[in-house]
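Lecture 7 notes: from sequence to structure.
We start with the chain below.
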Amino acid sequence: MSDYGTSDVHRIRQVPKRASYDRETVHAILDAGYVAHVAFVADGAPVALPLFYVRDGESVIFHGSRKARFMRFLGEGAPVCFTVTHMDGLVLARSAFHHSMNYRSVMVHGTPERVAEAEKARALSLFTARARQGRPQETRPANAQETKATQILRLPLVEVAAKVRTGGPLDDPEDMDLPVWAGVVPMAMTFGEPVRDIATVSAG
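Predicted structure tokens for the same chain:
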């Protein structure tokens, strides 16, 4: 896969050796996530919202009520900053200054566009499949009223940057002999044992 042609204004300047514009890296980070923070400016004030998302090829899609003010606002062409972050470990150093975290992150800048009505059914199916593989085939699909009530926005992956930190602490040479534990405490997202819904439909 080729790299994204991210413009200079959105390329990573702080510790650029951790940056990646490789499509495979970006896609892997996005595909591993469920929640993005979407930031924008509304009425002169900054706003950042956590939203469920799905990568769809060379774009990400997210949805909400078509009556929601922020969905209408973003659908009218407001620029956004879309971020996804995974925490992989706490990095404990010998000095307080060099404590850090291992992470994988992606940042996307751009302007969302509304998904057309004719494409909504497919897009909604992608959200359901992200919850569990094969789930769209098991459940009732959204009906016409539910589909109409939902607005879906698509953000193209054009101005994209990934940033990844791995490894242990980067202590100064003069601190290496301090009697302090140093290393990495791994972190990971895990799923618990499923709990069945015991609700029953009452007999009429």
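Points to note: Residues 8-167 form a domain with the Pnp Oxidase; Chain A fold (CATH 2.30.110.10). The chain has one domain: 8-167.
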